[in-house]
Design goal:
Layout (H helix, E strand, L loop, with lengths): L5 E8 L3 E6 L3 H16 L7 E7 H8 L5 H4 L2 E5 L2 E5 L4 E3 L6 H16 L12
Parallel strand pairs: 2-6
Antiparallel strand pairs: 1-2, 1-3, 4-5
């Protein structure tokens, strides 16, 4: 499996959530997100609104700060103590990454349960 073909964006309309797709490049990812979300929610693809379209490499190398690289895909907020928040209920619309993404999401959920949901500052920033 080639994780470098994975992209994540935050869909704003018609349904607010993070969405993962697999595509050959950023433009293809944008088209896929618009078409798939439009089809899922019964609206024209042109009406779908999303932001922060990032590649796997950007999420791992530039944006994420946690020690577990898989968990970096699901980080949604940071502060001086590290990861301050995680995304909630992302859509996995990436067929070739189907087994990897839900497995990583499941591991993160188990990790958060072990730490207790009240403790949101459990990951230290990179030094």
């Amino acid at each position: 499996m080639n994780k470098t073909s994975l992209f994540r964006a935050y869909c704003f309309w018609p349904y607010e959530t993070a969405v993962f797709v697999e595509a050959s490049d950023r433009q293809s990812a944008a088209v896929k997100i618009s078409r798939l979300i439009g089809a899922l929610y019964g609206c024209p693809a042109d009406d779908v609104s999303f932001y922060n379209l990032d590649s796997y490499s950007e999420l791992i190398d530039e944006k994420g700060i946690g020690e577990d690289l898989d968990f970096r895909l699901f980080e949604s907020g940071w502060d001086a103590d590290g990861v301050a928040s995680w995304m909630d209920g992302p859509l996995f619309l990436a067929p070739l990454n189907q087994s990897y993404l839900p497995a990583a999401w499941g591991r993160l959920q188990r990790h958060l349960e072990e730490l207790g949901r009240d403790d949101q500052h459990q990951v230290r920033p990179r030094m």
